[in-house]
Structure formats: C-alpha cells, structure tokens
Amino acid sequence: MKLQVLSLAIWLHLMAHTSTPTLTARTHTLAREKFVARVLSKASLRAEPNAAKCLDGSPAVYYIKLGTAGAGGTDKLMVHFGGGSWCIGKLNCSHRAIQELGSSLYGDYVGGMQAYLNPYIKSDTYFSDSQVENPEFYSHTKVFVRYCDGGSFAGHKPFDPNFPLYFRGKLIVDAVFEDLFELDERFKEAKDVVITGGSAGGMAVFLNIDRIKKRYFPDSFVMGIPNAGYFPGTQLINAQGIHWSHEMLTMAELHGITHPGGSLEGSKCLSNKAVPAWCIFPSLIVQYIETPMFIVNSVFDSYVSQYALGIPIACGVAGACYPPSGVHAIHQMHALRQNILSSLAIAPTVVSGRSAYFTHACPTHGEQLNSPGRWKKLQNPADRQWTLYKTLNLWHRSLVAGKITMVPNSIGGGLWGNKYDIHAIWPNYRDESCY
C-alpha cells in the first residue's frame, strides 16, 4: 500500500511539472574563463515527438567554455557526458525524475555546476586550459553535458501519457550539437573533436561515438575517451552478475536504446546478435565501433565489483579478501579482469592501432583521469615510463597528424606471488600512483 501511495505521489508530481517546466532561461554570452550554462529550451528542441528532455520533462542543460584554438575556439572541441548510474524500472526512474540526475529543476543548475566545473579549468587534468599541464587538449572548447535521462544518453522512446516519463537521452545528444552549431556554424568544421565521459557517461561514448562522427563530423578527426565506462556483461561470473546483466537489459528496453530511434539504430552489432540488447555492453559493442578511441578503465573497477558482482568494496580498498572467505571473490575479480582484457584485445580498431587502452588495477571508478595529477602518476606496469598522461598525449597527437603510433596498451592487474594474496590480486592496492 505504501508503495502504491508513493508511486501515486511521484506520478502526480511529474504530471504537475512536465507540462510547465520552469527552467527556461538561455545564456547567450559565452566566456573563455569559465563555464556558462546553456538550457536547451528552444521551441524546436522541445517540440514533440522528438523533444530533448530530462526524465521529468524539464529541459536538458549543458555547460560550455570557449577554447583558444583557431576560428574563435571552434577548431577544437571536447564534449564530456556526465555520469551517475542508470534508472532500471519505471518506479526507479520515477524516483530519479524528482532528483538532480533526472531533472534540471532540482539543484543549482547554474551556480552549483559552475562551482563544480570551473576548478577543473585550472587543475592538472585533461579538462585544464593550461598548455603546460595539458598540452594536447588545453585549447579545446570544453562542453559538459548534464546527465538527466538515466539511460547513458542513448534512449529514445515515444511519450506515454499514462506514465509521464521521458526517455530521450539520444535526443539530448543531438540537441547539444544542434545548439552548438547554432551558436557558431564553424563548430561543424572542427578539426579535432574529442567525445569523452565518465561512468554511465563513459558508456555513452561507446553507444554514441560512431553516430556522432557520421552525423555531425563526417570530415573531421573524431576520437573517444571513455573513462570508467567499459561495463562488461558479467553474466558468466556469478549469480549477482547474472542479475545485474539482466537489469541492464531491462534498462535498455525501457529506454529504447536498441529500438528504432535509439542510439544503436543501424549498428552492425544489432544484426549480429541473437539478443540485440546485449549490444549495450561496451565489451560487445566495441567489436563494431569504427571511430578511434582511447579507453581508460580499471580491471578491478570498484563500481562493477561492488554493484555488478556483489563483492564488498573492502576487498580492494581495505584488503579484506583473505581465504577462506575471499577465495571466491578473488577468482571472480580475475574473471572480470579477463572479460575486460580479452574483449579489448580483439577489438578491430585496437588490433589496427587506431584505438588504444590504458587499463589499471586501482580499485577505483574513474578517478585516475578526473582527479588532478593522477594521470601523470599512473604507470603502465609493464613499462613504468609510460604513464597514462604520456600514453594518451602521444596517441592523440599521432592520430591528429594522420599517423598510427602503436603506443603500449597498459594491461592492469595480474598474478604475482601467492595467488590468494591481496597484494597479488590488487597489485596497485598500496601503489601511490592510484591515489
């Protein structure tokens, strides 16, 4: 009964807010020194049946900081998709729709996000505008797309008036580029376009990169940098992995990711799989992606281990996986590692050298690329002179110049010493390059 009452309350809230969203301001003055909010409230972007909306029907929002590249900053463009898990079922999505990850009506959408993003401009990350700290990407115009669809920016479902939720992630992506081109048509001719994202936003890179390249930048150099977004199908690892994998398939169906109009429409993966919905997993879709990518991921990712496999985070962080209680967890974590590495190794663009990957064994979820300074500390265990920073910069510089440089792919993890020793399973557990 309580659940029914709660569902009714959420439904009434959505009915009240989706028809008359209050967030309508649009910012037209851009800046090079800070991020500025852009609300996608233009009538053409909000007209049904193809409106770009958050789950609750409020307008999507992105943030832009002009770069210093040529053509008024339009020569180089970096677009980052925000992350924050997914919503699986209608009730779960209804809860999300009345929070910041499902609506632009909650939280300080201008000041709060600017306060979060602006420090990155001066930080030692790939979002920095310092040529010294970030030589390859400092001059790019930076775009951060707020995550509010709950489906990795990949879904497209017709609106159901009986349950007022909007599954429009793919349309948000399209609206962002259309708005950018309206701001300055020269963005269409950008010479260097980087599509990146973290966690669910990293997964969005896999699900959108080829479509973005073909539709918006057919004649430009385009590359993807998915960070902590390489979510493998975990159904072969343990019972929790089976459950999580099928929850993700439910999410894909709810959001319409593999349906006509979804981000994977037209993908060769859909026609080659008995169950097309499995194509949402990056370990499968990467076999069909044609656009170059530099994939950054932990082989012992803390989100996947904890939520997809049900292995306590203390295993990696606190070292609480000693036998006999931790034996199964250790084997399962190595099954995860093998799943990630084996699928990456055979990806066609990796084999050709057009894509590369930097995997590591830190029990974290994306911090190695997002946290200041860590990308310069994290080392390839096979050759420690190759840091994440050095590898990514050389690979990008070579491809932009039309060359293929076979940078050493970093293979994180492995077995050292006693196979049941936590320091063998997470060899970077006490490695300062992780933190």
Describe this structure as you would to a colleague.
The chain has one domain: Rossmann fold (3-Layer(aba) Sandwich). α7 (200-216) links the parallel β5 (192-198) and β6. It has 18 helices and ten strands. The protein has 435 residues and is an alpha/beta fold. It is globular and about 55 Å long. The strands form three sheets. A six-stranded mixed beta sheet has the order 1-2-4-3-5-6, sandwiched between helices. A two-stranded parallel ribbon has the order 7-8. The model is unreliable at 1-8, 17-28 and 414-430 (pLDDT under 50). Helices cover 37% and strands 12% of the residues.
CATH topology: Rossmann fold
Helix content: 25-40%
How many whole angstroms does the radius of gyration measure? 21 Å
User: Sheet with the most strands?
Assistant: 6 strands, mixed
CATH architecture group name: 3-Layer(aba) Sandwich
Detail the poorly predicted runs: 1-8, 17-28, 414-430
Q: What is the 3D form?
A: globular
Mean pLDDT: 83
Task: Please write the string of helix (H) and strand (E) elements.
Answer: HEHEHEHHEHEHEHHHEHHHHEHHEEHH
Determine the CATH superfamily: Alpha/Beta hydrolase fold, catalytic domain
Number of helices: 18
Measured by DSSP, the beta-strand proportion falls in 5-15%
Q: Structural class of the helix and strand makeup?
A: alpha/beta
Q: Which CATH class? A: Alpha Beta
Distance between the termini: 47 Å
Order of strands across the biggest sheet?
Answer: 1-2-4-3-5-6
How many domain units? 1
Task: Please provide the count of β strands.
Answer: 10
